[in-house]
Each structure stands twice: as C-alpha cells, then as structure tokens.
Amino acid sequence: MKTTELIKKENQFGAKNYKPLDVVLSKGSGIWVWDVEGNRYMDCLSAYSAVNQGHCHPKIYQALVDQAQKLTLTSRAFRNDQLPLLYEELCQLTDSHKMLPMNSGAEAVETVIKCARKWGYESKGVARGRADIIVCSDNFHGRTLSIIGFSTDDNARQNFGPFTPGFTVIPFGDADALEAAITPNTVAFLVEPVQGEAGVIIPPKGYLKRVREICTQKNVLMILDEIQTGLGRTGKLLAEEHEGVQADLTLIGKALSGGFYPVSAVLSNEAVLGLLQPGQHGSTFGGNPLACAVARAALKVLVEENMIDNAAAMGAYFLEQLRQIQHPAVKEIRGIGLMIAVELHENTPGGARGICEALQEKGILCKETHTWTIRFAPPLVITKPDIDWAMEQIREVFAELEG
C-alpha cells in the first residue's frame, strides 16, 4: 500500500494527537529506515532515544525470539527466571541497590512520585497529605494526568484538569531557586539532567553537583529522570556521571529495550524502594520474562559494542561540524553526546518544521520541538562517514533556505 493511502487511513481512523512527518516507514536497520516505497532515510531521532542501539539490533532481536518461544508473561503473581538476572545485571551496571521494573517511562515517573511521597511520610515524617515534590519549568516527564499537572506547557494541560496537587515549579538550572523552594514538606526534587523535549536545554556546569549537595543537606530525595538522557545518549551510561553525582532515585526506559519492547525501571536503594509492601504497587506486565530478556540483551550490546564511548566521540564530531554552519537563521547550536539541538531565530521561514521537511526530502529524518528547534539524536552506532554524509544534506538545506 502506498504512502498516500496509508496516511489517508491514519487520518480517517486515528486520533490526531500527533503531527508526524508524512513518511510511512516499514523497515529499519542500524541508523537507517525505509519507507513503503523503498526510499532510505537516516534516522536522526532514534524514536526519542528508544533505539540507541540502532534499529532491529540482531542480538536483541535474537533474545526476543528465543524468550518468546519459551515464556512471555507470568504476571508478578509468580516468579520467572529472567527478572532476578535483570535485577542483578542492571544494579551492578548502574551501581544501584534496588530496581523496580515497569513498562513505559510515564509509569516509571508515576512510580517514583508514589515512592517519594511514601518515603516522605514514613521516613522523613512529613504530615499525611502534605508531601510536596519540586519540579522544573519546561519539564517533560510523560503524559499522565498527574505528570501534565506539573507541566508548564499550556498545550499539554489545556482542558485536562483538575490536576493532582503537591508540586512546586522552579526554573531549570537554578540551584538557588531549588534551595529557596524547599520547605519542611518537600520530599523530592524531580529533574531531567538535560531537558530533551524542551529543546536539549543543558544546565550550567556544576548544577547537578550543587543539587546533590542541597538535597543531601535538606534531607530531600534527588530524582533524575534519565529516561531520555540515560543509557549512553549523552556519552556516559547515565548523564549524572558527567558531574560525578548519584541520585537517590534514577529513572530509565526507552533504550532499556533497544526499541523492541516497552521496558522502564526505577533505580534506587533499600531506604526508598524497601518501603513498598506487597499490594501497594505493581503492573501486570512489569518485569515480565520477555521484557527482562530483551532488556538484558539491550544492556549487554550497549556495553560490549562500545556504543557509549562512540556516542561521546561521534557526538563531539557532529556538534563540531554543525557549529561550522554560518547561517543567519541559526541562533544557537548546543549538545552533549548524541543529543544535539539547532535553535533557529524566530523569523526563520517555515520554522524548524520546514527544515525537517526539507531534510526528509534529502534522506534525513529529524523532528522539530517548540517551533524553532531541530533535534539531532541518531542511534549511538553512527559513524564518522555517516555524519559526513548527513552534513552534506544539512548544509544543502540551509543553503537553499538562504536562497
């Protein structure tokens, strides 16, 4: 079936809660994807960093097939032989003491909100119903009702209220604002090490280290949402490593399965996760053997195939090449690892969407965010020749824009 026919069906029968580029993909391998007409594109979004290991990685695929032939789901009413191994391997890799498995990133965030509040009441002594969690403006932590309630994106919130109380919003990257906002009822500070959906907003150097100091001094849980930044995207296993800190709770997802299956996790310690008792939290699919086998393989290839170091090296090279673009439309180019943004001036014809559409015509798929910013986040297996080819297309698009 052709692109136009499939788009017509999608528009007719699907809810219009996304505005995708008009390309219909049917196949992927490594950094490349193909549409239904057989045209090839370089994927520079990586499913919002869910396919860090590249599309359809053969070793992750084999783990999926092998496990699917044996056992896929038991629920947590019974034990399975894959979950304990994922617990051990993930905790050892991330230097965590405990892990709680979920499915989507948003579920992991909802889980950590519950855990932080429970810790506040049972360990810190906050009065029941008064727990407060500090978050940042321009955050993105998911799409559930509680999460959008503390979003500052009007489009995400409009006509979805009333919202869950118990959140205080402060500016991102401002440690003094965090310190000033903490009260005796504050149980946690939830923050992204780098704000991805906001347009790859990188905080000032030393910010996370100062946050760690404040949270320790004030007896407040430091929660890092590494669902997008984690598992190699920034050139480290976890973005917190850039400043040598460790959060009390860390959230990972997306690339935890290499794009094969929804898997997420809350990483923490006995002091927090040990407070959960049977029946107080769970998920039918969370920790299922298929998910665990896939996640184990995804983590293994990430480390064994040197993808994290490659992300650091190729990210630096890509950023260097992009910064050589001298164009009046470009306001700023910023990035860390293979998490890169090109921000345009607000008078640029067509905005970021127009450039993404032009890049699509030249075989590169990327996505705009907030009208004026283009994100480049290819799989971590990208090579220097791949980047050189991509830069040719990017330069041509900007040259045509100038014309």
UniProtKB/TrEMBL annotation:
<keyword id="KW-0663">Pyridoxal phosphate</keyword>
<feature type="modified residue" description="N6-(pyridoxal phosphate)lysine">
    <location>
        <position position="254"/>
    </location>
</feature>
<dbReference type="GO" id="GO:0004587">
    <property type="term" value="F:ornithine aminotransferase activity"/>
</dbReference>
<keyword id="KW-0808">Transferase</keyword>
<dbReference type="InterPro" id="IPR050103">
    <property type="entry name" value="Class-III_PLP-dep_AT"/>
</dbReference>
<dbReference type="GO" id="GO:0055129">
    <property type="term" value="P:L-proline biosynthetic process"/>
</dbReference>
<keyword id="KW-0028">Amino-acid biosynthesis</keyword>
<dbReference type="InterPro" id="IPR049704">
    <property type="entry name" value="Aminotrans_3_PPA_site"/>
</dbReference>
<dbReference type="GO" id="GO:0030170">
    <property type="term" value="F:pyridoxal phosphate binding"/>
</dbReference>
<comment type="pathway">
    <text>Amino-acid biosynthesis; L-proline biosynthesis; L-glutamate 5-semialdehyde from L-ornithine: step 1/1.</text>
</comment>
<keyword id="KW-0963">Cytoplasm</keyword>
<comment type="function">
    <text>Catalyzes the interconversion of ornithine to glutamate semialdehyde.</text>
</comment>
<comment type="similarity">
    <text>Belongs to the class-III pyridoxal-phosphate-dependent aminotransferase family. OAT subfamily.</text>
</comment>
<keyword id="KW-0641">Proline biosynthesis</keyword>
<dbReference type="GO" id="GO:0042802">
    <property type="term" value="F:identical protein binding"/>
</dbReference>
<dbReference type="InterPro" id="IPR010164">
    <property type="entry name" value="Orn_aminotrans"/>
</dbReference>
<protein>
    <recommendedName>
        <fullName>Ornithine aminotransferase</fullName>
        <ecNumber>2.6.1.13</ecNumber>
    </recommendedName>
</protein>
<dbReference type="InterPro" id="IPR015424">
    <property type="entry name" value="PyrdxlP-dep_Trfase"/>
</dbReference>
<dbReference type="InterPro" id="IPR015422">
    <property type="entry name" value="PyrdxlP-dep_Trfase_small"/>
</dbReference>
<dbReference type="InterPro" id="IPR005814">
    <property type="entry name" value="Aminotrans_3"/>
</dbReference>
<keyword id="KW-0032">Aminotransferase</keyword>
<dbReference type="Pfam" id="PF00202">
    <property type="entry name" value="Aminotran_3"/>
</dbReference>
<dbReference type="InterPro" id="IPR034757">
    <property type="entry name" value="Ornith_aminotrans_bact"/>
</dbReference>
<dbReference type="GO" id="GO:0005737">
    <property type="term" value="C:cytoplasm"/>
</dbReference>
<dbReference type="InterPro" id="IPR015421">
    <property type="entry name" value="PyrdxlP-dep_Trfase_major"/>
</dbReference>
